[in-house]
Batch of 2 targets.
Target 1
Amino acid sequence: MNSPTRRPKFPLSLDAVVERKPAPARTAGMPAVGGARTAATSKVRAKPVAPAAVPGSAVEARATAASAGGGGMASERARGALAARLRAGGIRDERVLLAIGAVPRHLFVDPGLASQAYEDAALPIGHQQTISKPSVVARMIELLRDGLGADQPLGRVLEIGTGCGYQAAVLSQVAAEVFSIERIRPLHEQAKANLRPLRVPNLRLHYGDGMLGLPQAAPFSAIILAAAGMEVPQALLEQLAVGGRLIAPVAVVPPAGGPGQTVTQQLLLIERLNRHRFHRTALEAVFFVPLKSGTI
Ligand code: SAH
């Protein structure tokens, strides 16, 4: 993948990681994001991470410094352990592992579920939706980054299905710019609130129907869908840059009359070879919430 759009130098970091506190304390004094616009941007200056940083480096040091009390150390250890489990499970991209080790997943789930936040499991986030499994988040982002070194971020990335904002935060660590769309307004608002204390300057949240993409910000060097449709929406293929990659769960319907009529899903990797040609690779079976049109 040698497209220039996939290889800008743009050092990124979570400038600070704040442990979950009771709601008023957590947001007190934090910069407001988004305002009345439908797009929310968390934009506070971030210190750059040294290129080719490895787990256990600057991001984690700042996370610890910003965390009050032993909960911070416990969360840091849990994040590190999660990244180690994903490495043992086959994730090879050090930048992805660093990002998983840096993003405090417990801030993206209900406080009652925080003790499960560093297990490799999907968890409910309300509105019949889930926060994706860390191993699946890591796998999909690794596929988007295939061929890039740890010091080479993705370019402009579009995520469909912000949910609670966790994957968007992980993406913000491995890409120059991230745009994420959510169709359920309360989840869009929740994601804004979850991301505010993390001060992620290169992430923009949009409320809308992600099946339409975000033409005003296209083309994207990578597109990632966090919900499964029957097929990949045409608008998203059109908004993928030449040389770019799209990863999506899609439904696989077994042939009529065959045994077992259950609809399953598989990951589909699509590479745009030129204006008209796309190369598709079907990968492993997965389980995602459905991709739906319109907004609620
Ligand atoms: N990215 C999340 C996963 C959220 S679950 C994470 O970090 O774990 C998938 C999300 O996709 C749900 O919140 C669902 O509402 C959303 N979704 C489904 N169809 C959509 C569409 N057409 N546009 C935008 N979001 C959509």
Target 2
Amino acid sequence: MKTKILTFTLLFVALFAAAQEEEESMKMKPQMTEIWDPEVSKITPGETPMDAPSDAIVLFNGTDLGREWTNGDGSESGWLVEDGCATVVKGQGIIKTKRVFEDFQLHIEWRSPAEVKGKSQGRGNSGVFLQARYEVQILDNFDNRTYRNGQAGSLYKQYPPLVNACKGPGEWQVYDIIYTAPRFNDDGTFFTPPTVTVLHNGVLVQNNSKLRGPTEYVGIPEYAVKKHGADVIQLQDHGNPVSYRNIWIREL
Ligand code: MG
């Protein structure tokens, strides 16, 4: 009888220990949620956040505009290139990149004229058109009122900037734009709309804003748009001599 009790006791202890061990092995450990491979690819950042990192495409370095840009019709750009920047020449029309892009991070520096002329939308107006359709407005809004969804840092006629972070006329300003291209349903409606984040002079002015459709000057942006794929970046000729320098892009 004693032997039987002893055997049962030992068996119970063994089973209990095994159960304990199993429970222990089922517990989450820190290592179980660590992902090691593939290793995150290394790049070399620029000396300052203004400088192109090693994986960026430099779209304009201040001298050779024709390397990456053309006029709207594909001919040579008529914009003025001097003093390390490219300046809109009224009537020459937009310029566009030779390359096309999907999702990207774009760094672009711009300057409205030091000599103040005009008011509201007529003062230092240009714009960055993402995939040739969606405008991030460029405007001299330093002491210059205009409609809030049309001022600098707005997604034109759709989203006003969160704040007015404009520097004065003639000062260089920076946009850092993070863009996710739309994905489409078969009928041309957005499956996911394009989203845009913009930092203006380092200040967040668009926080993952979801566009409703291509930029419209007149009328309501349409939800049902023509499907499109990768496309160019355009800079607008709005008749004002706005300048650009140090433009680089990282494809995401
Ligand atoms: Mg504009």
